[in-house]
Write a structure and sequence with these properties.
The complex is a heterodimer of chains A (203) and B (241). Chain A is mainly α. Chain A contains six helices and no strands. About 5% of the residues of chain A have low confidence. By secondary structure, chain B is an all-alpha fold. Chain B is 63% helix and 0% strand. In chain B, helix 2 runs parallel beside helix 4. Classes of the chains: A mainly alpha (203), B mainly alpha (241). At the A-B interface, helix 1, helix 3 and helix 6 of A face helix 1, helix 2 and helix 5 of B.
Chain lengths: 203, 241
């Protein structure tokens, strides 16, 4: 009798585990489901996203960000001066000012494209503010390096710390917003069976 | 023969002595075990404002013990969580040379693309292709060194193991992209090669590059989610590229 109970328990346990155990392997064995055919709305959504990505690329994604980041590395490695790095910061900022306007001008339809536009415009604004703070920080640094007469070092340290904190805070928000935008839009494109955008579309 | 009053010490409560009920209970428990914890929830709404990524602990910091989670005020990370944060930091640090060097190549490629798209002279395109070749060689050696550093960390399980796998996948994809970019440059330089092959070579390396960028972004999301769940400060958003 006890043996029967034990067998019954084992049988039920196996039945209970069966769906979980087969869910992964079953997916491999089943014939692949055809990707859903994108609707007109889906195609419109992708077209909106491409327009946003184009605006971002023209506004600093293509010729602003990589050069500014490279200049930052070279400045940290003492390969270029703070003044030259500041020129890169200015160039990137100016491109982004145009880029933010271009993003605002993109007319989007649908919730996802609107969400993505909001995230990338916020990111753009934060990055411009971050670059402005970085410029002021570099100005302070350049003045110190030049040994300006009568400079209060304690006050200067405070200003540097404040500006650095503001710079990092803005950049963090900006990079985070673009990361979330990319996560969101690529997942949506996957879901609709459409081609992804280039992964660095909103870098 | 055993006496009827010889009840073993592990006797079950009366309702559980019924075999069918016991079996159902076991099945339910097993189902719960099988279904639970298969997916981690993404917390996209978390604020990420702290500028520094490092997991630091003040010498006299009030740490929560692993058994007693804090109940009031800001959640304090436990020693175990701080240990996890340090392991994440170590992986990010091992990957750092890739993050720092990547945009050297991206900038060189942009300048070359601009020359090609703008119908620049052959001399300009050749010069800019040369700059790309220099940068891809440098990145290649950075990738080789970084791979060793990331892979040498022995991690059995957990989110840091996942992060390590993503970083290694990213490095491998980028190394592949770099090799394919060189092939693409060679194809472009060969006047006998047709446009179809040029386009195919260009698409191939960009697809691998996309894989690498996606791995890095996924790693970044995983890292931030893990840190948030462990009550740790967020990492710098530009720490993984």
């Amino acid at each position: 009798m006890k043996r029967h109970h034990l067998l019954l328990i084992l049988l039920l346990a196996v039945i209970a585990l069966l769906p979980a155990a087969t869910s992964s392997s079953g997916a491999d064995l089943a014939p692949p489901e055809p990707a859903p055919k994108p609707s007109d709305d889906d195609r419109r959504m992708r077209s909106d996203l491409v327009q946003l990505a184009d605006a971002w690329a023209a506004g600093g994604g293509r010729f602003g960000y990589p050069f500014w980041d490279k200049a930052a590395q070279r400045w940290r490695a003492h390969e270029i001066s703070a003044s030259l790095f500041r020129e890169y910061v200015t160039g990137y900022r100016d491109r982004l000012v145009v880029g933010c306007e271009a993003l605002d001008d993109v007319d989007v339809d649908g919730d996802l494209a609107r969400d993505v536009r909001e995230l990338v415009t916020d990111s753009c604004d934060d990055r411009i503010e971050g670059l402005r703070a970085q410029q002021r920080w570099l100005d302070e640094l350049i003045l110190r390096e030049a040994g300006r007469a009568g400079l209060d070092l304690e006050e200067s340290d405070e200003r540097l710390a404040e500006l650095d904190a503001e710079t990092q805070d803005r950049f963090t928000k900006s990079f985070r917003a673009t990361r979330l935008a990319m996560d969101q839009l690529q997942a949506a494109l996957d879901e609709q069976g459409m081609d992804r955008l280039p992964e660095d579309a909103f870098i | 023969m055993q006496r009827p009053d010889a009840v073993p010490s592990f006797a079950m409560p009366a309702p559980l002595r019924h075999p069918a009920l016991l079996a159902l209970l076991c099945a339910g428990l097993l189902l719960l075990t099988a279904c639970g914890g298969t997916e981690t929830k993404r917390s996209d709404d978390s604020a990420s404002t702290a500028p520094e990524a490092t997991t630091t602990v003040e010498p006299d910091a009030d740490l929560a013990t692993d058994d007693e989670p804090p109940t009031d005020g800001e959640p304090v990370p436990t020693r175990m969580q701080i240990g996890l944060g340090r392991r994440l930091d170590a992986l990010v640090l091992a990957y750092r040379p890739v993050t720092l060097r990547m945009n050297y190549l991206v900038a060189a490629v942009q300048l070359r693309d601009d020359a090609v798209d703008g119908d620049a002279s052959k001399a300009v395109i050749t010069e800019r292709s040369g700059a790309v070749r220099v940068e891809l060689r440098r990145l290649q050696s950075v990738l080789t060194a970084a791979r060793v550093q990331v892979a040498r960390r022995s991690i059995a399980t957990g989110p840091d193991r996942q992060l390590q796998q993503l970083l290694l996948a990213g490095i491998d994809a980028r190394a592949r992209a770099v090799r394919e970019l060189e092939v693409s440059l060679n194809v472009d330089a060969d006047p006998e090669v047709g446009d179809t092959d040029r386009t195919a070579a260009d698409r191939t390396w960009r697809a691998s590059w996309n894989d690498a960028v996606r791995s890095a972004r996924t790693a970044m999301t995983l890292q931030q989610d893990t840190r948030e769940a462990a009550n740790l400060e967020p990492a710098r958003e530009d720490s993984l590229r």
